[in-house]
Amino acid sequence: MSYNGADQHYYMVDDEDAADTMDGIDEEYHTADDANLDEYDMLMKVTDTSSSQAREGKDIQGIPWDRLNTTRESYRATRLEQYRNYENLPSSGEAADKGCKPTDKGGRYYEFFHNTRLVKPTILHFQLRNLVWATSKHDVYLVSNYSIMHWSSLLQNLTEVLNFSGNIVPTERYPGTLLEGFTRTQLSTLAVKDRFLVAGGFHGELICKCLDKPGVSFCTRTTNHENAITNAIDIYDSSSGLHFMTCNNDCGVREYDMERFQLLNHFQFPWPVNHTSMSPDRKLFTVVGDDCDGLLVDARNGRTVGSVAGHLDYSFASAWHPDGRVFATGNQDKTCRVWDVRNLSAPTAVLKGNMGAIRSIRFSADGQFLVMAEPADFVHVYNTGENYERRQELDFFGEVTGLSLSPDDESIYIGIWDRTYASLLQFNRRHTYEYLDSLM
């Protein structure tokens, strides 16, 4: 991710620059006379939306369109027209449009299940959107301001896992750990798998926690480079146990084991690395970043074994299909491109977003779906078995803090950041036979 200290305000978001996708709607309320203020206050109180309420006509985010001076359709048209996609390379999105073929958005793979406004997801860096992780269809971890929170959709309960506003100090001793820990860490990325959580910070911080143990297990700073932000973390199983890989703006990719929290490999690349993902057979990993091309790298020695060309801007997302032959990359040119390792000369599919960069990509564990998120308002679910020609469009309003499928593919969770309508959306997989609104 490109970075310049003089332009820092373009990248780091404070409270005054919080996502205001719904500000126009809020202003509609504020123009009301004083007699309507009590009603406004009542409407702004936290109210969840259930699937049964949505079937009866309630907006899934609780937005009271019938009391506004605009309709949902009109506001959607305005958003599509006025939203400004961030590009490092000017006009990349417009140029990429020419290579995209239309797709049928009539798919119905997941249904809205619940929206909780008790959960308040946040983002600090507008290009990094990996801040929501589901470890089961009921358990979700996410970043909210200086805290990592756990949401149980089964118990409808929100608890704090770690608070980074004070001093985070490791409770276990490992070689290389910073015993003094970190103070007031600004979180840039998060990854959670099984019982392990790894968080990354704006100054190269790494904080590791075992979810079944109290306290923090390990703290380190990956680099002292002045541009050290941790852009993404990937946790994966290996032949020697659980490992994780980090990528930083200092052009480095580092691999650690999670048993002893030791650095195993450190690979350098020609440009800042924004995202990596390990292949299912652990032989290759993707590298995408501040370059139009992406790389396939040998996981044993860090040597580049292949490259993919076609994107017109910088990439911030990647993911592997479980068959290990197909992977996808997400780019600020508003496209997700699907590649086959057996022939990297051209993408097998070019999938287009509606209005913004593709900043999060996930394949379902069964390989049936590719799910990709734009920075705001849209998540798309593509059917891989139909050559990516059919998709479902999940349509809402607000900045996407993260996207996660549960390990069994039964649930999709989407974090929404907004001054008024911040929430966590849950969609459940459709089945031919199912108990209506069942939590199990």
Automatic annotation (TrEMBL):
Pfam families in the record: WD40
WD repeats: 308-349
UniProtKB keywords: WD repeat
Annotated InterPro entries: WD40/YVTN_repeat-like_dom_sf, WD40_repeat_dom_sf, WD40_rpt
Gene3D superfamilies the UniProt entry points to: YVTN repeat-like/Quinoprotein amine dehydrogenase
Name of the molecule in the record: Transducin/WD40 repeat-like superfamily protein
Organism whose genome encodes this protein: Perilla frutescens var. hirtella (Perilla citriodora)
